[in-house]
Structures are given as structure tokens and as C-alpha cells.
């Protein structure tokens, strides 16, 4: 009944699909209604059925899951699933989420045993006497240029051919360019972003603080160790009871400062952490 509701078709076609492809019941029984995976998109397709959406994933080696919006017959294939991208799995009315491994690979037809590369997709080849399918480029892969932060991409961003991504530079980098990445037809990214490492002008400069807890002196704040466990990483620490704590560093020159980054003490074996630190002007 479920198959008939989603894909209106004659009963003889339903009975034909099941013997040929095996049972589709495991896939339908594991559908996650009202959910989708966000911002892990390879490509999207319009005016396709749910099974066609699943097949697009089956013939694309990088694909791990699909989102499908039945009201618009809209399909999204993803390069992650809810296990590998748990924080991106969310409730979303009208959507259905499904994973590649829940469906028989025979649905892919001649492409079920293809040897396409990870950045390719298998296409059925019509009117050919020598072979039934061919591998064509599907995407540009995950951008890996140094310093790029992909955690704030937009909902519509995708890594598929002719798609684009909006990126930022990670903390500790300065950015030039619009931040747009375009996946070209040759499977390579066109970057309009350059991330340059910001020099740490405070590194190993003379430092002082209002008081010192045990041996955690001011110089530990500029020793180059970015760890935040005070006992393991040796962080600067003012004394308990210091009612007006401060810390300072002598840069020993005049600089135009573009940013100040403070790594506060993190959670440790004492279950202690600090925040609300304000740099002096």
C-alpha cells in the first residue's frame, strides 16, 4: 500500500518491481519522515519520484543518503548520513530521509556493478551496442584548500558539477575574495577565496599578570601551546581570590592589530572553565 501511495502506478508494475529488485519493504520501513540531512548536498533534482531519487544515490558512489520532498517531487542526494553528520540531521516538515544502504543495489540496473570513481556517477547509456552504462563526473569533492571553514555554508550549497559553495576562512586566517567556490565541469573547484595565516605577534613576547596561581605564570599564555587544559597544557592562571585580575603582553613594537583571540581555560579534571574575559582597549 505504501508503494502505491507514493508512486501511483498499475498493480502489474508493482508486482514486476518486487520480483526483479527483491523486497523494497526494508527501505520503506526505515524511512525517516519529517527529517532531512542539512548542508551535506551533492546535487538536487526536480520532478523525480522517490524511487528515482534513491536510484540517483545508488548510482553515485559518494552518495550516502537522500532527502525527498514529496509535495514538490524534489530530491537531494547527500555525501554524508545521519551517523557521520549527526548535528546536521534535523526535523523538517514535509521531508523524508533515507539511507543508501537500506535499498537493494539492483535498483540501479546496469549500474549496480559499475566501477565509477568516487567523484563520478553511473549513467545508463542508450542506443549503444558496446556497453550499457558510462561513468561521468558528478562533483568536485569536498573543498580542501588550507584555512577554509565549511561550517557556515548555506542551505542550497552543493558540491555537484555547476553548483557552488559559500565559504569563510577559519579562525586565525584573514580572508580575501568573495568566498564563493564554483564546481566546474572538469571536476575542479574555482576558488574566489584566499585564506592567509594571521601572524601571532604576541608569541613569546614578555607577559605579566596581576598574580600567579602556583606556577602558572603569564608567559604560558604566549608560549604557542593552544591547548586549554591548565594542568596538561600549562596555561596562565591568576591567584584564587584576586579581585581585580589582569594579564598583559608587551608587543615590543607598534602594530595594526586586526584581531585578538583569547583561548580561555577549558573544562578539566576539576570541571572548571572560565568565560567573560574582556580585552583592554
UniProtKB/TrEMBL annotation:
Q: PROSITE patterns attached here?
A: PAN, SUSHI
Give the residue range of the signal peptide.
none
Instruction: Provide the alphabetized UniProt keywords.
Output: Disulfide bond, Sushi
Q: List the disulfide bonds.
A: 140-183
Q: Does the keyword Cell wall biogenesis/degradation apply?
A: no
For this protein, the record's Pfam families field holds:
F5_F8_type_C_2, PAN_1, Sushi
Q: Which SUPFAM superfamilies match?
A: Complement control module/SCR domain, Galactose-binding domain-like, Hairpin loop containing domain-like
Q: What is this protein called?
A: Fucolectin-5
Amino acid at each position: 500500500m505504501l508503494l502505491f501511495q507514493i508512486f501511483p502506478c498499475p498493480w502489474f508494475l508493482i508486482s514486476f518491481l518486487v520480483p526483479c529488485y527483491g523486497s523494497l519493504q526494508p527501505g520503506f520501513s526505515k524511512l525517516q519522515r519529517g527529517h532531512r540531512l542539512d548542508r551535506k548536498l551533492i546535487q538536487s533534482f526536480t520532478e523525480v519520484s522517490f524511487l528515482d531519487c534513491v536510484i540517483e544515490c545508488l548510482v553515485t558512489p559518494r552518495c550516502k543518503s537522500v532527502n525527498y520532498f514529496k509535495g514538490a517531487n524534489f530530491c537531494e542526494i547527500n555525501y554524508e548520513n545521519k551517523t557521520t553528520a549527526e548535528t546536521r540531521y534535523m526535523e523538517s516538515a514535509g521531508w523524508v530521509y533515507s539511507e543508501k544502504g537500506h535499498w537493494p543495489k539492483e535498483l540501479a540496473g546496469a549500474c549496480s556493478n559499475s566501477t565509477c570513481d568516487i567523484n563520478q556517477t553511473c549513467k545508463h547509456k542508450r542506443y549503444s551496442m558496446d556497453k550499457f552504462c558510462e561513468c561521468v563526473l558528478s562533483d568536485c569533492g569536498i573543498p580542501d584548500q588550507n584555512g577554509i571553514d565549511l561550517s557556515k555554508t548555506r542551505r542550497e550549497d552543493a558540491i555537484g558539477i555547476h553548483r557552488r559553495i559559500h565559504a569563510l576562512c577559519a579562525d586565525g586566517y584573514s580572508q580575501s575574495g568573495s568566498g564563493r567556490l564554483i564546481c566546474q565541469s572538469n571536476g575542479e573547484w574555482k576558488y574566489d577565496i584566499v585564506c592567509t595565516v594571521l601572524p601571532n605577534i604576541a608569541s613569546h613576547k614578555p607577559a605579566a599578570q596581576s598574580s600567579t596561581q602556583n606556577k602558572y605564570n603569564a608567559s604560558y599564555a604566549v608560549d604557542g601551546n593552544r591547548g586549554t587544559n591548565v594542568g596538561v597544557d600549562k596555561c596562565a592562571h591568576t591567584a584564587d581570590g584576586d579581585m581585580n585580575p589582569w594579564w598583559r603582553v608587551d608587543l615590543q613594537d607598534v602594530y595594526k592589530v586586526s584581531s585578538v583571540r583569547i583561548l580561555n581555560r577549558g573544562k578539566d579534571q576539576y570541571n572548571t572553565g572560565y568565560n567573560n574575559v574582556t580585552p583592554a582597549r
